[in-house]
Design brief:
Number of helices: 6
Structural class: alpha+beta
CATH topology: Alpha-Beta Plaits
Helix content: 10-25%
Order of helices and strands: EEEEEEHHEEHEEHEEHHE
Low-confidence stretches: 1-41
Oligomer: single chain
Largest sheet: 8 strands, antiparallel, barrel
Strand order of the largest sheet: 6-8-7-11-12-10-13-9
Radius of gyration: 19 Å
Distance between the termini: 23 Å
Length: about 280
């Protein structure tokens, strides 16, 4: 925890240079005591992909309602989403009823800053039902767009100087009138992404079938991701069409620095951080 003492004259946004992480970080949470000492904690994101045992997928469906209560009651969590998963690791019309996702945006832990912040009730639920879990702790570093009208990960810069392995979240609310156009392009793009140079893994997640969809993917670096996104013809054409034809009523694109990757999914760890 960083402790600085000063007098605040008005609300402000504060940035510091952190040598350990080597990136410019937005301080989204300021905690003030009565002697005007400010306690800064870095804003992070925890993404957990959970797979239930066979025949217990309905428990995962039930958890989408039950988990809302501990998330609502946790004042440390600034943004959260409970989501289902698709089968293809990308935008997908076919749900995987055994696999579910939880995204939480939160400050780093005071005593253990490199640990995800998962409410005890939720982690206990997963343990009781013997779930397989892949947990990612992520630092938002650049991006743009909104999620339900909110800057879910803070006011991020559009570019950063980070060059290591990178996580990418692409999400959108698709206009009902454009659903046919959107879904007619999905399968081909998903297949090309899986074979793209520098691609490591991906998971398809979403809040609402067909309409509110997202993909989280991990790449060896920013350049590999850009080669696929902007220089592979089919994908570049789709990006152009989304803007020209206004497929989305809302969209968001955020890049992350992976801090930790633990657990397993389908019997293996999809992405290992090499220190």
């Amino acid at each position: 925890m960083k402790i600085l003492t000063f007098t605040l004259l008005e609300p402000c946004s504060i940035q510091i240079k952190c040598k350990r992480w080597n990136s410019q970080l937005e301080m989204n949470k300021i905690y003030l005591s009565f002697n005007q000492t400010a306690y800064f904690r870095f804003m992070l994101a925890s993404l957990v992909i959970v797979r239930y045992p066979r025949w217990l997928g309905w428990i995962g469906f039930l958890s989408m309602a039950v988990f809302r209560f501990p998330l609502w009651l946790n004042s440390s969590i600034s943004f959260w989403k409970l989501m289902g998963c698709g089968k293809n690791g990308s935008f997908d019309k076919t749900p995987d009823w055994r696999q579910w996702a939880l995204l939480i945006v939160h400050p780093s832990k005071k005593n253990n800053p490199d640990q995800p912040l998962i409410p005890l009730f939720i982690s206990s639920w997963w343990n009781i039902f013997g779930c397989e879990k892949w947990t990612l702790l992520l630092e938002p570093i650049e991006g743009h767009g909104y999620w339900d009208g909110k800057l879910a990960f803070g006011d991020l810069p559009k570019q950063s100087d980070y060059l290591g392995p990178i996580g990418v979240l692409t999400r959108a609310t698709i206009r009902i009138s454009k659903l046919g156009r959107f879904w007619s392009h999905v399968d081909r793009i998903a297949q090309q992404m899986a074979g793209a140079k520098g691609f490591i893994c991906s998971v398809g997640i979403g809040e609402m079938p067909f309409i509110k969809q997202a993909t989280f993917s991990i790449w060896t670096g920013k350049e590999a991701m850009k080669q696929f996104a902007y220089k592979m013809k089919d994908h570049a054409d789709v990006v152009r069409k989304t803007h020209q034809e206004k497929w989305y009523s809302e969209d968001m694109f955020v890049r992350f620095r992976p801090i930790s990757s633990t657990g397993s999914l389908n019997g293996k760890l999809p992405f290992k951080i090499i220190s």
